[in-house]
Amino acid sequence: MPRRTMIEAIRDAMDVSMARDERVIVYGEDVGFFGGVFRCTQGLQAKYGKSRCFDAPISEAGIVGSAIGMAAYGLKPCVEVQFADYVYPAYDQIVSEAARLRYRSNGDFTCPIVVRMPTGGGIFGGQTHSQSPEALFTHVSGLKVVVPSNPHDAKGLLISAIEDPDPVIFLEPKRLYNGPFDGHHDRPVTPWSKHELGEVADGHYTVPLGKAVIRRLGADVTVLAYGTMVYVAEAAAEEAGIDAEIIDLRTLLPLDLETIVASVKKTGRCVVVHEATLTSGFGAELSALVQENCFYHLEAPVARVAGWDTPYPHAQEWDYFPGPARVGRALVETMEA
């Protein structure tokens, strides 16, 4: 199969979807002629025309609000918010309109929109280009929330999201855009050196929403991760010499609780890893669910490794990230508890 970066896989997903269904449209800030700030939409306007791939004003509320209206009348908008940090002006549209449209209309209307957003750090973008706001969306009933960790899943999950009848928040880890991340490094040293580019099939295929995957089988401790942190967890387990079972959640909402519970009941221990701020992060929900469903199987408290409870520190970006050293300490402490 062809090897592609995540950017190429995401572009291919939109290309395939637009070719299969003329109702699919793509727009956002600079996504048309320019091809997006990360070039995820490069070439789509030339191929499908300005009526199906076009630039929008710098108004996130306008981008998402217009997409909701288009979706209600039969289109399938896949819109880009240039950075996840920019989504806040559109948050009311997402929460108050998109997430509730099916219920408020008693099923007369659905809202098949996808809101794509680059998320997380790794490009020294500072406080306004590096946030990980996934927990703000997993709290909202009526949304689906997706975070891919590799090119193959990115394409299949995005096609599934575009074809889904309800709104999907599609968060794309920037550190994985140009190649799989080498989680062994706490600093940006040859960050793409370890893993091959992802094998991504041509044409149409889907990866189901709401289904996690076990990336590394193990017997001693379960690690729950998503996005970039999947690679960090793998590196931490290898360096610490711990037989960890690593689950890539892929979809945060709906969550594949069945896979999580089966793994934790087998290992008896659990460590949760995410890049976002610790307090009220999605790891808190994961920890609560594991405790509720696996309490009598746990040999140690559930541990969380996450970003600091501070505004995003530009100058200390690579200390802020959970790296293999911090995750490895949590694994060791959990095994010793």
From TrEMBL:
Keywords on this record?
A: Oxidoreductase
What EC designation does it have? Answer: 1.2.4.4
Cofactor(s), names only, from the UniProt record: thiamine diphosphate
Enzyme class label: oxidoreductase
GO molecular-function term, one example from the UniProt record:
branched-chain 2-oxo acid dehydrogenase activity
Q: Cite the InterPro entries for this sequence.
A: THDP-binding, Transketo_C/PFOR_II, Transketolase-like_Pyr-bd, Transketolase_C
Q: Domain of life, per the record? A: Bacteria
Q: Any idea where the Transketolase-like pyrimidine-binding domain is?
A: 4-179
Stated name of the protein: 3-methyl-2-oxobutanoate dehydrogenase (2-methylpropanoyl-transferring)
Instruction: List this protein's GO terms for biological process.
Output: branched-chain amino acid catabolic process; response to nutrient
